[in-house]
Amino acid sequence: MNTRRTRCVFLFAMALVFTGLSQQQGEDLAAEGTGLGANRQEALMAAKRDAIEKGIGMVLLSQTEINNFMVQRDLVITRTLGAVKSYEVLSENKAADDAIEVRIRAVISRTAMRDDLAAFRILIESMDKPRVMVIVGENNVGNTEPANNAAETAIIGFLRDPYEFTVVDPQVSATIRASRQKMAALAGDEAAAAAIGAQYGAEVIITGSAVSREAQGMTQNLGGMVSVQADVTLKAINCSSAGIIGTASGHGAKVHISPNTAGNQAIEKASGIAMKKLLDVIIKEWQNQLNNGTQLTLTVNNVLNFRAKNAVIQTLEGIANIGAVRERGWDDQTKALRVDIQYKGNVDGFCNRVDGYKMKTGGSLSVSGVTGMAVTLNAEAM
């Protein structure tokens, strides 16, 4: 299904949901939800999703509505998680394999279900409020002073209001801008950028460049005012994997008696345009993680032979919440197996599940290290 058709189906399904909502009396409804997880946070989020699904089911009026909802079920539920106004934990128990089961009674707001901003905020909550770091190199009409921060100020303002992102202290970014060596590394090395972001506790680093230049031959036509145009290019990088989430660019133009002021204003305008585009890409990436799972990179040590390698793969495929297992290679010399997995939950939840997990062929898996989205395991013998 192409992107345009997917979006149309999704919007149609949402419209049907909201049509049903508008025909109900009152603004709130109550629904119970139950969720299982490797930790309380995973279980609670699963319970919220269950409650939302039941709440949507209460207002769908026809089989056609239900069918269209089911086509894009995960997307609809993710986008409407903001409908949970409040919840009460009814029970919390240990389940099989040390999993946690949480049952809640949720108060679901029909108004919030129609509010994309509420849904977006709950998406941020679902992703553990990722911290964002912003570092943009800036050339304002030939001025390349490290103190130039019009782009960063505009981007941070956009992220904080109204989206309420948690942003790394801009003073930290100012210190990094003052280092030519660090800025040079940021310019073309995603791994270096990710390392800098991770050093300051960021999950995502937004970096790039902002350049403004005076439009030539325009002063006479503008009555002595100066026209300045700006171009801003941004890149969002996952600090755990060093992978590029997405890129975006924006263009802006402003007129002022001062070239420097016009340049700042043009950069601010271009930054806002670029950031809106980039945010769409980030939202899509996070929704994909919630719906399909987060990609984790595993290194399994002490995998002694080919048979043991197959046993580890089969064991991983049988662990709850793992949606896909992709073998990347096994080295007979180092006895190390590299695997990528899609895990519906967080890194901590995966580690809780896999640490001490018994393999059918004997032995068990143990966690020996975690760095971002990279987990190191050991295949322990009986």
Secondary structure class reads: alpha+beta
Order of helices and strands: HEHHHEEHHEHEHHHEEEHEHEEHEEE
End-to-end span in angstroms?
Answer: 48 Å
CATH C-level label of the largest domain:
Alpha Beta
CATH topology of the largest domain: Rossmann fold
Number of strands: 14
The share of residues in helices is 40-55%
Number of domains: 3
- Main β-sheet, spatial strand arrangement: 10-11-9-14-13-12
Count of discrete alpha- or pi-helical segments spanning 4 or more residues: 13
Low-pLDDT segments:
1-26
Note the beta-strand portion.
25-35%
CATH superfamily of the largest domain: TolB, N-terminal domain
Calculate the mean pLDDT score and round it.
Answer: 81
Q: Please tell me what the overall shape is.
A: flat
Cα-based radius of gyration, to the nearest Å: 25 Å
The CATH architecture of the largest domain would be 3-Layer(aba) Sandwich
Largest sheet, described in full?
A: 6 strands, mixed
What would your notes on this structure say?
There is one protein chain. This protein has 382 residues and is α+β, with helices and mostly antiparallel strands. The protein folds into 3 domains: 3-126, Endonuclease I-creI (Roll), CATH 3.10.28.20; 131-291, 3-Layer(aba) Sandwich (Rossmann fold); 293-380, Alpha-Beta Plaits (2-Layer Sandwich). The chain has helices at 3-22, 40-59, 63-71, 73-79, 110-113, 116-126, 150-160, 170-177, 180-188, 190-199, 259-292, 306-317, 347-354; strands spanning 28-37, 84-94, 100-109, 131-140, 166-167, 204-214, 226-238, 244-256, 294-301, 322-331, 336-343, 357-358, 364-371, 374-380. Helix 1 (3-22) crosses helix 3 (63-71) and helix 6 crosses helix 11 (259-292). The protein is flat, with a radius of gyration of 25 Å. 37% of the residues are buried. Residues 1-26 have low confidence and may be disordered.
